[in-house]
Amino acid sequence: MPDCLFLMHDDAAALGGDESGGDWGSYIGGLQASGNFQGGGAMGAGVCERKSGAAPAVSGHLTGFICIRADSLDDARRLLVGNPVFEAGGTVEIRELPKTD
Q: What integer is the mean pLDDT of 41-66?
C-alpha cells in the first residue's frame, strides 16, 4: 500500500466554512481504527532554505498534514469523508509518497 499525504489548505473559511472546528478527534479516530492513519499534525510558521541563492517564500496556505495508507489515490479520496477541512468546503491536496530504495 502506498503512503499518501493529505495537505490541508486554509481556504475553507474563505468559502464560509470553518476548518478549525469540526470533529478532528472522531475523524482521526476513524482513520486509526481502520489502520490507515500514519501520523499528522498542524503546520505553523516556517521558512524555505537553499544552500545558495534566494529561496522562495514558504507556502503559507498549508495548515496541516495527515499521512495515511491507501490502496490508491481513489481510496485516499474516500478517506476524506469526515475531514473537517474537506467537509467545510476547503481544499485537501492528496499527494502520493512513492517508495524509494
A: 92
